[in-house]
Design goal:
The structure holds 2 protein chains of 2 kinds.
Chain A: H1 3-17, H2 23-26, H3 35-61, H4 63-86, E1 90-91, E2 94-95, H5 97-125, H6 131-153, H7 160-171, H8 173-183, H9 185-188, H10 192-218, H11 221-240
Helix pairs in contact in A: 1-6, 1-7, 1-8, 3-4, 3-6, 3-10, 3-11, 4-5, 4-10, 5-6, 5-7, 5-8, 5-10, 6-7
Chain B: H1 5-19, H2 24-29, H3 35-61, H4 65-86, H5 101-128, H6 130-157, H7 162-171, H8 174-189, H9 194-220, H10 223-242
Classes of the chains: A mainly alpha, B mainly alpha.
């Protein structure tokens, strides 16, 4: 098997792992309305924790570039919000404001996978010896991202299959981007901090502008704060051991 | 620049506390601050604190993740628990014009308790590396201005004179200095405690951002402006510390 094909297959496995994030929701019957607040809080913690990890990696390559990338990411979400707000969006059986939120989360997570895919490709570029370890690490790291997407979609009425599919979909840019990044490591490396910053900025902005305000609307702030901060710390811990 | 770390922490956190006096400017300009100003002030504070939490995580917690996370859980749990005991989970810290007698004491007390983890953050950052300590103190100093301005505006609206309102609000920063110096002293005497102190600071900062600062913001100004202001403030901290 040629190396680019292997990179693609490994990155594809990591994308499929994202679907596993839907699994916990298979055991929860009939999601109650108030669950939106909890699910938002969990998704916020996961996304903020993931962004902290990304920023730490990005500043390793260059702080200015990472922050600049983050500002571009925010601009991108502002633009997407405008566009999405203009149409009557349907995701599965859901339409209206809920569907817009779902779509926005899917877009944010998918976009963030592009830069992750590049990071994977560059990591493989460091030598195929570490390939298996990297694949397992990224695959496991993708599961909470699937969890974050499902946490936003499921309480708003999306089916489990839809949640799993969109989770996997959000990671598909990983195999697609990993191969060219692997082939042209030297050319891609300088762009990496911008991409990583872009992903982090988009996620933090999404959390601040959509997920947290909605959570505070629907639940008391103490339990929301407890959930967000504990999830964030758990996500940081999780990333450290993988 | 002081070479003695204790003196440095005292100087830095003391200066950070004194910066709070700048809060008199906005409160003097507008007798009654518009609520959107309070929202943006809170958002700046939230963004800077989120940046400090990130810096502590990236610089220290990742070295001893398990202990740090345990400390963070402790910090989060402690604040949740004490607020529960005091019955202040849902206390609105930004009520302009409220003249109920105990409200003034309550918000001053809550603010005093809240500056403690910020002091721990300065002390811990100083232990990790002196320049990190300086940057952290700077971020906290800047964040003191909007936070004290909000408190001073509320106190001023209760009928306190400008000088007294700002004075009382700025006095809540004393615990920052106390905890900064104490943390440094304890952590240099017993370095085993450093990961715990770091975790406690991270957890407490995160909890305060999520429980106090952000929820108030969203009721005072539009979501988009709040998110942008907080993100810019956080980006400043990342830039400041990311510089070689």
């Amino acid at each position: 098997m040629s190396e680019p094909v292997r990179v693609f297959l490994y990155a594809l496995i990591t994308a499929l792992a994202t679907g596993l994030g839907t699994l916990p929701f298979a055991f929860v019957r009939g999601v109650p309305g108030a669950a939106t607040a909890w699910a938002n809080a969990v998704a916020s913690g996961l996304m903020l924790g993931a962004s902290f990890g990304l920023v730490a990696e990005g500043t390793h390559y260059g702080a200015w570039q990472t922050v600049l990338g983050a500002m571009l990411g925010v601009g991108f979400i502002l633009l997407t919000q405008r566009v999405v707000g203009r149409y009557n969006v349907r995701v599965g059986d859901v339409s209206g404001r809920s569907a817009q939120r779902m779509l926005l989360v899917i877009v944010v997570m998918t976009v963030h996978s592009f830069s992750e895919g590049v990071a994977v490709g560059v990591a493989f570029g460091g030598g195929m010896a570490l390939a298996t370890a990297i694949t397992i690490a990224i695959a496991v790291h993708n599961i909470p991202e699937g969890l974050a997407i499902t946490a936003v979609m499921r309480p708003r009425g999306a089916s489990l299959v839809a949640c799993a599919w969109w989770s996997v979909f959000s990671s598909l840019p990983q195999p697609v981007m990993a191969v060219p990044a692997f082939l042209f490591v030297e050319a891609v490396r300088p762009a990496l901090p911008y991409g990583i910053g872009f992903a982090a900025g988009a996620m933090v902005y999404m959390v601040l502008v959509e997920l947290l305000p909605e959570a505070y609307d629907q639940a008391r702030r103490a339990p929301v704060a407890l959930t967000v901060s504990l999830t964030l710390v758990a996500m940081v811990l999780f990333q450290q051991y993988l | 620049m002081p070479t003695n770390p204790t003196l440095a922490v005292l100087t830095y956190s003391g200066l950070a506390g004194l910066c709070a006096g700048l809060a008199a400017i906005p409160v003097a300009i507008r007798a009654r601050l518009p609520s959107s100003w309070l929202g943006w002030a809170n958002a700046v504070a939230a963004g800077l604190m989120l940046g400090v939490a990130y810096v502590l995580i990236a610089a220290g917690l990742t070295q001893t993740p398990a202990l740090g996370a345990a400390g963070a859980a402790l910090g989060i749990g402690f604040l949740f628990w004490t607020h529960g005991l005091a019955g202040t989970h849902d206390l609105d810290l930004n009520r302009l014009g409220d003249t109920a007698p105990d409200y003034g004491y309550q918000i001053v007390l809550v603010n005093t308790v809240h500056t403690a983890p910020e002091g721990i953050a300065i002390g811990v950052a100083m232990m990790l590396n002196p320049s990190l300590g300086g940057f952290t103190a700077l971020a906290i100093a800047v964040h003191n201005v909007p936070e004290v301005a909000v408190l001073a505006a509320v106190l001023h609206s209760r009928g306190l004179t400008l000088a007294r309102a700002v004075g009382a609000a700025a006095a809540t920063r004393v615990s920052q200095v106390l905890f900064a110096v104490t943390t440094l002293a304890v952590a240099s005497a017993a370095p085993v405690l450093l990961p715990w102190a770091l975790g406690v600071a991270v957890g407490a900062l995160l909890y305060l951002i999520m429980a106090e600062l952000l929820p108030h913001c969203y009721r005072q100004a539009g979501h988009t402006s709040i998110a942008l202001v907080a993100l810019l403030a956080m980006g400043m901290v990342v830039l400041l510390v990311g510089m070689p």
